[in-house]
Write a structure and sequence with these properties.
With about 150 residues, the chain is an alpha/beta fold. It has one domain: 3-Layer(aba) Sandwich (Glutaredoxin). Helices cover about 30% and strands about 20% of the residues. It is globular, with a radius of gyration of 14 Å. The protein starts with 14 loop residues before the first strand and ends with a helix.
Length: about 150
Amino acid sequence: MANTPAVGDRAPDFTLPSTQGPVSLKKALGDGAVLLVFYPGDDTPVCTKQLCNYRDNLSVFADLGVQIIAINHQGEDSHRRFAAKHELPFPVVADTGGAVCRQYGALNFLGMAKRALVLVGTDGRIKWRRTDFPIFHQTAADIRKAVAGL
């Protein structure tokens, strides 16, 4: 997608509902860098494994000064059930129209979120991004290796 922001570009701002109330990227960046975790579906095997890995390794992200915001096209009710079931301590954002996923190049041709990671620095610029095949995901250790030197 030609309009997908690349590393170095300003990250599109958004404010959307989440499991922890409204989430604004701009406001979150006031507390440190943000890793946007776009994922295909709540309570699916790979997505659950990925987000639970991040939950279990929050210290890795804290050491990097990075907060997590998970996001996909599903609604708030689905996200609330998913986050409660797996005790996810970070916001799970509902992008029901897919606009934010689309802005970040994280929406497939079927209108579902792709598995993608976008690291946004406190300056509001994209520092790192990665898109994975739906059956694969980056672990917290993989992310640490990729972004530790940025």
